[in-house]
Every structure is written in C-alpha cells, then in structure tokens.
Design brief:
- The structure is a single chain.
- Strands 1, 2, 3, 4, 5, 6, 7, 8, 9 and 10 form a ten-stranded mixed β-sheet that branches.
- The protein is built from twelve helices and ten strands.
- It is globular.
- Helices cover 44% and strands 18% of the residues.
- Helix 2 (43-56) packs antiparallel against helix 11.
- It binds aspartic acid.
- Keywords: Receptor, Signal.
- InterPro entries: BUG, Bug_dom1.
- Pfam families: TctC.
C-alpha cells in the first residue's frame, strides 16, 4: 500500500471513530469529570457540585463527578484540563482567575485564549468582607480604625495568587493604602476555617462560602463588594464597600465552564445544551440564589460570548494588576 493512501485510510478511520464517539457521547459506562481548581467545600467547589447534579439529567443520567486539583491560585487544576484528552469527559469549572492568571503569572503552562473550548458562564457571585468572630470592630468604620491601629500586624487570607479572594484583597489594600500580610490557602474553605478559629484576621470571599457562616455568626461581616446591596435576606443589611467608605470598589466573581481545546463540536454542543438546561433547573437556581449568586441567563451562556467576555475581563483586570505590580513566577 502506498504511504499516502495508507495515511488517508488511517485519517478516515480516525474521523469515523471520532464521529462515532461524538455521536455516542456521553457513553453509558463513563462519567464526566469537572475539575475544580480549589479546595473541596469552598465556593468554587459548591458551584461545581450543584452544577454537576443539575447536568446529570440533561446528560442522560451520566454521573458528573468532581476532581479537586488544587494549588497555585487555580493554575494547577487549570493546567490539568488544558492537557486532558479532548473527548468531553474532562471539564474545568473556574472563576475570574481565568482572567487574572495571564497578568499575574510570568509563566503559565497554558494559554487561556488558545488551550480551551468555552462552554458558557454559569453565574455571577458577590463577595463579602469578613473577619474573625472575636474582631473587636462592629461595623466597617470601626474595622477601618482597627486596621489603622494595627498596621503591619493585620493578616488577610486568600486562595492563592489569581484567586478571587486574592484579587479582592489586593484591591482592598490598594484602596485603603495599607499593606497586609497575606496568607495563601488552597481554597477559601481552609481559609474560612482558620478565620473562624482566629488564626487570621480578614478574608474577602464569595457569598456562596460566607452566607451560612454569617448567618451562624461564626464570622463578622462588614460589607459586600458589589455596587448595590444584596437582596438575600441575611445579607441585605450589609452596606456596599463604596457606601461604607471605600469609593468605587466593585468586584463580582463569575464562573465559567471549559473543555480542552480540540473537543469535537458535536460534543461541545451537547455539553453546552446540558449546561443551559442546568441553568434553567429551578432546584439549581434556588440553591444558588439562596447563597447570593445570580445564575447566568444572558448571552454569555453561549460559547462565543463567554470567550469574548473573558477576553474583556483579561484586559480589565490586567490594568488593575499591572498598577498593583504583583507577579508570580
Ligand atoms: N473563593 C476562592 C477564591 O478566592 C476559591 C475557592 O476556594 O473556591 O477564589
């Protein structure tokens, strides 16, 4: 057989088997894995677990499981998905870190624009500024005074360089012109445990992690990071940071779903349809809204718009990060 003919046969066979794999996706005997690049029990994990449950039915009953691949502000788990087989069985759920990592890390083993297929935005989540339960301050004004009195001694937790808590903390330190000692965790689940235990002073974290701790009075809450107050009953009395005295402060965290680059289009279409069905699932909406999140229903639930949105966010946060002069190797 001539080499060129042989190659053509191999290519045709590969196309047929890929086509068949796409048609059969998801196979009855396989589960879909969503990689979460932060610790189990934290806010990103919570969104992923609710989504996994809601996607099971639209994926024909296929089980959707979570793999917490943690560390380095989500860059470890994100890299894992960039290298995964592009067959639809390994996905990534990550947040705003997809737009901060390109400016924060001098070296990344993946390219956010080129190494992923974009499946859609899941939700937008506000953040809250919280403190250890024995913090003497009872409102933001008192907290600002306490921070000023304790300059050089204040500890602020985060989930690593590039995490939402890191970004929020960075903006907060810049806004009040006070440097704090930052303590990096593998997610804000372990960070909030240490906050409750009094090992750290402050944390800025998504309401999906902080609402129940605020309700249970396990932490003290001072403000929300959005431009408007929230409607969630237990959070509605919290002022915005801007109202409390930190002008122009606004951070909202979004989460998106991704597949490795090269995943066949028919599989991407099935995954996007399953994701969109999950976003309309009343149970999913109820759970997310109860934690202060707003489930996406705008054009960003379409892959092309998701990608455009992330590109705009990369530019927006790149400016903030460059001005702050923070980098990691
Ligand atoms: N909330 C974390 C962050 O700061 C991530 C997490 O633990 O889910 O980005």
């Amino acid at each position: 057989m001539k080499t060129s003919f042989k190659l053509a046969c191999v290519a045709a066979a590969a196309a047929v088997s890929f086509g068949a794999a796409a048609q059969d996706f998801p196979a009855a005997n396989r589960s879909v894995t969503i990689v979460v690049p932060f610790a189990a029990g934290g806010p990103t994990d919570r969104v992923a677990r609710d989504l996994a449950e809601a996607m099971r039915k639209p994926l024909g009953g296929t089980s959707v499981v979570i793999d917490n691949a943690v560390g380095a502000g989500s860059s470890i788990g994100t890299a894992k998905v960039a290298r995964a087989a592009p067959d639809g069985y390994t996905l990534l759920l990550n947040h705003i870190a997809m737009s901060t990592m390109p400016s924060l890390y001098r070296k990344l083993s993946f390219n956010v624009a080129n190494d992923f297929e974009y499946l859609g935005i899941i939700n937008d989540v506000p953040m809250t500024l919280i403190a250890r339960p024995n913090m003497p301050a009872n409102n933001y004004k008192e907290l600002a005074a306490w921070i000023a009195q304790n300059k050089g001694k204040v500890n602020l937790g985060n989930a690593g360089l590039g995490a939402a808590s890191h970004l929020c903390g960075l903006m907060f330190q810049n806004a009040i012109k006070t440097e704090m000692t930052t303590i990096a965790y593998k997610g804000t689940a372990p960070a909030i445990t240490d906050l409750i235990g009094g090992q750290i002073d402050l944390l800025c974290d998504q309401t999906t992690n902080t609402t129940s701790q605020i309700e249970g009075k396990k932490v003290k809450a001072y403000a929300v990071t959005t431009s408007k107050r929230l409607t969630t009953p237990s959070l509605k009395d919290l002022p915005t940071l801007a109202e409390a005295g930190v002008p122009n402060f606004e951070v909202t965290i979004w989460h998106g779903l991704y597949a490795p680059k090269g995943t066949p289009a028919p599989i991407l279409a099935k995954l996007n349809e399953a994701m969109k069905a999950a976003l309309k699932d009343p149970e999913f909406i109820k759970k997310q809204e109860g934690l202060g999140a707003v489930v996406a229903s705008d054009k960003r639930i379409e892959p092309a718009e998701h990608k455009k949105f992330v590109q705009a966010e990369i530019e927006k946060w790149g400016t903030v990060i460059k001005a702050a002069g923070t980098y990691a190797d």
